[in-house]
Amino acid sequence: MPEVVGESNLFSVGYALPERKIEAFMVPSFINYARERGIDFIPIDVSKPLTEQGPFDCIIHKLYGDEWDLNLKDFSDNNPNATVIDHPSAIQRLHDRISMLEPVSQLNIPQLNIPNQILVRDSESLKNVETIKDLSFPVIAKSLIADGSPNAHTMSLVLNHEGLTKGLEIEPPLILQQFVNHGGIIFKTYVADDYVECVKRSSLPDISEETLEKMASESNGVMSFSKISGAVMACDDGWSNNNSDEKLKMPAPEFLKEVAKGLRQALGLHLFNLDMIKDDKGDGFLVVDINYFPGYEKLPSYETVMTDFFLNIKKSQEEKKMTTN
């Protein structure tokens, strides 16, 4: 049983989150457990200046917009010892699918890379995609903007050049990312500073050349993600993701820690997760997406993990005060 902390020693954490995030993450069991260990969660009224609320030792947020950014800046200017998780400019980098993945390649970690991808700025550019070097069909079409909006989550598998000009749901600017067979498994790696946890999740199934031809002949060359698994099985009577346990093994813990540490430093973020796949034709992993402040509540014992996270923020602040006094 955790030792109950006195009111005067509580570490105050203000939170400004979307309603759905509050319902999923800020549940009573977490709030009560954290308070027993010295963390006091306080809801923020986003209609008022932060400087008129609190006081806050730390702020966590997942809101966007110039007005909110200015509110945070004013708070930070007036409370230099408080911790804001995370800085808006660092979060903004993840809202662009090009800048999001740039740091991955720059880490120069063996067996780590990103899929080949290109930016298509306008509809006219789609006509020339078939001549782009290092990109071949099928490709995944994604919105350039990854801000959590419904459009940002819309993705399609483009089977051929016809699919780029007929029936593509996503309007440019968009990203075309090389589809890679990966055993139908995605490795979602959650990072909260030094904490790193990787879980397996189902992903798009592998697609053989024969199946690709059948799918293309029975469609207009493009298919939404929600229809892909059924289409693959319908086009391939013997369909299965035939992968050995070796192929679907979790990435080594040392590898995950190295990747997480490198991205924490490169992105300047405390809280994020990355989606990785294992290239079926090689030994390496490809990072396909990075998300800010993901669903930690889906992890086992997340109350303990996240409470420890905030206690470490408190410890860092105390150590910083000692060195400056």
Describe this protein's structure:
By secondary structure, this protein is of the alpha/beta class. Helices cover 36% and strands 22% of the residues. The chain has twelve helices and 14 strands. The chain has helices at residues 19-25, 28-36, 66-78, 88-93, 97-106, 123-126, 150-153, 161-165, 209-217, 225-235, 253-267, 302-324, and strands spanning 11-16, 39-43, 58-61, 83-85, 112-113, 117-120, 139-143, 155-158, 174-178, 185-192, 195-202, 222-224, 271-278, 285-292. It has a five-stranded mixed sheet with strand order 5-14-13-10-11. A five-stranded antiparallel sheet has the order 6-9-7-8-12. The protein has a four-stranded parallel sheet with strand order 2-1-3-4. Helix 2 crosses helix 12. The two termini are 35 Å apart. Mean pLDDT is 88; it is low at 229-234.
Keywords:
alpha/beta, 325 residues, 14 strands, elongated, 12 helices
Distance between the termini: 35 Å
Number of helices: 12
Low confidence ranges: 229-234
Order of helices and strands: EHHEEHEHHEEHEHEHEEEHEHHEEH
Mean pLDDT: 88
Number of strands: 14
Q: In angstroms, what is the radius of gyration?
A: 22 Å
Query: Structural class, from helix and strand content?
Result: alpha/beta
Strand residues, percent: 15-25%
**Shape type:** elongated
Name the strands of the widest sheet in spatial order.
5-14-13-10-11
